[in-house]
Amino acid sequence: xxxxxxxIALSVAPVLQPFGAxxxxxxxxxxxxxxDRIAPGDTFTVALxxxxxxxxxxxxxxxxxTGVPTRISLEAPRGFEVGEFRWPAPxxxxxxxxxxxxxxxxxxxxxxxxxxxxxxxxxxxxxxxxRARWLVCQETCIPGDANFSLALTVGGTAIPSRHASMVEExxxxxxxxxPNAKSEVKVRILYEKTAMWASADGxxxxxxxxxxxCVPMPDRRARQKSKDGWFGFEFEDSVENGRGVWxxxxxxxxxxxxxxxxxxxxxxxxxxxxxx
Length: 276
Hints:
Helix content is 3%, strand content 42%. It is mostly beta strands. The chain is built from one helix and 20 strands. It has one helix at residues 164-171, and strands at residues 7-8, 27-33, 35-38, 43-52, 57-59, 71-75, 81-82, 91-94, 100-105, 107-115, 125-137, 140-154, 159-160, 187-192, 195-200, 205-210, 224-225, 231-234, 247-252, 260-264. The radius of gyration is 21 Å and the shape is globular.
């Protein structure tokens, strides 16, 4: 676990009530789902929204120099399949002394998919329970946590909730798998010894946010750019065939309002294109 550079104010550590606010309103959490009613075999989404006070942040699960990553656990009745919570891409946060963290600010929505078993009883009510834990920091750091629960009725057919559009919009901000070769969107990855190179049609900037499980990088701020539009990222060990590379690729284009984000994992397919 990375050391925590800031002083942790344990004496004022907040205790959150479900859907409530932390002491001083530093972090507010709300749980919701895209269903008012679920059905047997239905896959639905649970969303946990964090509203973080201005100038404060919580931590993304990256190669951070300080802090503790935010964690969410979710329990469901037997037979339900619960996926991991997925997070939007982080913001780069630089501290005095050259320290660097990947953080989440302002409003953040994490999503997890849940699948109901085919034999769940119609007319029953199922309860999901979870807990979130975080460290919220500015000049000092305060640990916080929140317990939450959802009660959902099972019907013959699923009914969307009033939060369905919000959940759908939050999903557009999550990193996705790289497009395949037949896609109109072209994103290419190339591995050379201790470097990963990335290119995309029309890209004006490409950044890489390494997960905590990623091979260490000697300088996470640095990236090279070749004449033919490839962006390079250096690692401390060999990354041939993508070995040990975990993270999120952020691609920016001048003609797009927001970046695109893609998941990078060891099984990510390398590009056939040669780089000059």
